[in-house]
Amino acid sequence: MQLAFHFNQARCTGCYTCVVACKNWHDVPAGPASWIRVITIERGRYPDPLVAHLTSPCYHCAEPICVSVCPVNALSKRKQDGIVIVDEEVCLGRDYCQSCLEACPYDAPQFGAEANAKMQKCDLCIERWAEGKKPICVSSCPTRALDAGPIDEMMAKYGESREAVGFTFDEKLKPSAIFKANPTDVSI
After folding, report:
1. Is the pLDDT reported for residue 183 higher than 80?
2. What is the CATH number of the domain that holds 46?
3. Number of domains making up the chain
4. What is the pTM (predicted TM-score) of this model?
5. Which domain holds residue 155?
């Protein structure tokens, strides 16, 4: 089984509730590390402007490049649910290695502000799944723009679109995400 995110770009208002909830739940200190980010995309000009938001967590790729480039095997992909996890104790840290960040096209690996910060990233709230709950970003979203679950269920419920404004699906990595794109943009 592979768990996946669904993101409805048409519903996202860019409120950052998912970001705040995630930082709070996981005790991620204020600073540069954020396990889920909200990217604002602005295009066009009057009378046809576009403003869209894109949530950007770790997409727990089917073929995660971060796992294969880590020189000390600090990253692994769980067989039971496809979640990509990091062992911070094994990670060499930002000052000695950033191979995972350099390789990831989605900037999922994050580093704090402290000296030789260890890599951290979205773990799809493993502890919440164990309790039968969805990730905190999903539960906290006031517009219900986020969902998560087994990828087959997400596709059955939402379709198989892998396109959204500001997102490029990598065929080699196969990020585990389903999207509903912002309907106002015809040229994703």
Report:
1. no
2. 3.30.70.20
3. 1
4. 0.90
5. 3-180
